[in-house]
Amino acid sequence: MVLGILGSGSGSNMQAIFDAITAGTLAARIALVLSDNPDAFILERARRHGIATGLIDCHGFKTKFPAEAQQETAACLQAAGVELVCLAGFLRLVKQPLLGAFPKQIINIHPSLLPAFPGLESWQQALTAGVAETGCTVHLVDAGMDTGPIILQQAVPILPGDSAASLHARIQEAERRLYPAAIAKLAASRG
Ligand code: GAR
Question: CB within 6 Å of ligand 1 — which residues?
Fold first, then answer.
């Protein structure tokens, strides 16, 4: 399974996928890592592992993912032979034409037990709601926000005294196991 990874931040999920491949627990290869943020640590991590990187030019838009940029992204991923696009902390909403270029081949990791707490800062949403547990979800990406079919989920307890930072860190620990497992599950189901 040839992977392309899109991220805007630290890239700990990309690192976990890379580590699972290196350990032999995930039969895949990361062909390309793309970011919309030139300073994102995910790019540095990828370079350190000799993985090709590229920058997504969103033409000055802060949150929008312009159609032209999505077209360029799709072309880069296709040129690299990518079979599965993994969003890993990518903070823009993927729509057309990128969705159409990779039908049912784009997945995302989200820091909650979807459908609960879609959108941003889901760990803070869970704290504010006062629930006893939250978690993380890997799902197929569709045209909605964090709405596609679920591949795998992992529950994470909320402990007394949790802050937004401590809860997010516990969720991210779970994410690092969940994302490689979800990719392996998807690969097995597709032969
Ligand atoms: C992860 O916790 C991921 O679930 C979250 O961003 C973080 C990225 O961390 N994604 C979202 O909130 C998407 N709505 P990373 O860059 O270290 O992988």
Answer: 7, 9-13, 42, 88-89, 109-111, 172, 175
